[in-house]
Amino acid sequence: MSILVIGGAGYIGAHVVRLLQERGEDVVVVDDLSTGTPDRIGDSPLIELDVASEGSEEVLTRTMTEHAVTAVIHFAARKQVGESVEKPEWYYLQNVGGMAKVLTAMRQTGVTQFIFSSSAAVYGMPDAELISEDTRCEPINPYGQTKLIGEWMLANAERAWGLNWTALRYFNVAGSGWADLGDPAILNLIPMVFDRLARGDRPKVFGDDYPTPDGTCIRDYIHVLDLAKAHLAALDHITDQRDHVFNVGTGTGYSVREVIDAVGQASGLDATPDVVERRAGDPPKLVASPARITDELGWTAENGLTQIVTSAWDAWQAGPRRIG
Ligand code: WQD
Cα dihedral angle (51, 111, 225, 297), rounded to 10 degrees? Predict the structure, then answer.
């Protein structure tokens, strides 16, 4: 019996793979290696495959049968908001099409447990102090739409053939659980600040005239190791939870300025930022209510901003782009 982790060689997936390995589970990884690397998954078997590609159902079906797969954790997806606006068709093909193929293979082989990487992007621009799972879902870009459609696909599969599923709506994921598993991309605030500092430039604040205490946007930063643990909690409760969708956040928001200050503290570098224009489409404040996942799955975040930024810094320094 084994757990299939699709996208297991990527930033978040590799953390889940390592936690599963640590508790003695048999893990098999499918990954197209577009952003992930094989050195992240230890000695678990790796099948190199883009699940959205022609004929992937056959490879997935064979993998599920050969490895006696009982549960699938599905990370593999494209996740750049701006790119999704530029190339909406490709996002639908990749994220929705890929998932349809995974579900087809599961139905064929009788695998009935599925954990899905959803996103706070399903909410769009909510006007709520704390976002609960009952907050209206009105995604404002194709990326967020593909995640919401993914949740619908799972609900449909439950009705049609009895799938057991959980979707985790991630807030702003950062940090590293192990220094060799840092975020390799430079697409989010913390790695973007590191990258500016590595080049000898000042970090940028995208607008400081938002209706927040210091004028910069507030987000709920979640440590990637805490997020990975939420997947194990979801797996352990896959047949007995009341609800299917759960926010994964801390319930505490930090502003862009607070995050940049924390990077200055963690690195010992001068992280004084420049304030530039607002970036289009940024909601002023996005903070999760994590009440549901705590109640039903017994999960709560253990790490705060300091641990997130410090661990992200340690991983950055362990990698090829170290500073100093
Ligand atoms: C955080 C804040 C920026 C860089 C995005 C996606 C979301 C999810 C996570 C994934 C914002 C500000 C950033 C910089 C800055 N995606 N910023 N200077 O936009 O909250 O969420 O990533 O699966 O769907 O939308 O995250 O890290 O890009 O930005 O001031 O150099 O930092 O404007 O307010 P975001 P982010």
Answer: 140
Range of the domain at 207: 175-220+251-318
User: Cα of 60 to ligand 1 centre, how many Å?
Assistant: 33
Taking the C-alpha atoms of 16, 19, 23 and 27 in order, what is their torsion angle to the nearest 10 degrees? 40
Tens of pLDDT along 180-217?
Answer: 999 999 999 999 999 999 999 999 999 999 999 999 99
Is 123 considered catalytic here?
no
What is the spatial distance between Cα 44 and Cα 60, in angstroms, rounded to a whole number?
A: 16
258: nearest Cα among 309, 211, 188, 224: 309
| 193 shares its domain with 285 | yes
Residues 147 and 200 in one domain: no
For residue 33, the CA-to-ligand 1 centroid distance in Å is 24
- 151 and 211 in a single domain? The answer is no
Query: For ligand 1, which residues put their CB under 6 angstroms from it?
Result: 79, 81, 119, 121, 172, 188-189, 192, 204-206, 217, 219, 256, 279, 282
What is the tens place of the pLDDT at every residue in 231-252? Answer: 999 999 999 999 999 999 999 9
Ligand 1 atom at minimal distance to the Cα of residue 218: 34
Tell me, yes or no, if the pTM score tops 0.70. yes
H or E stretch including 12?
helix 11-22
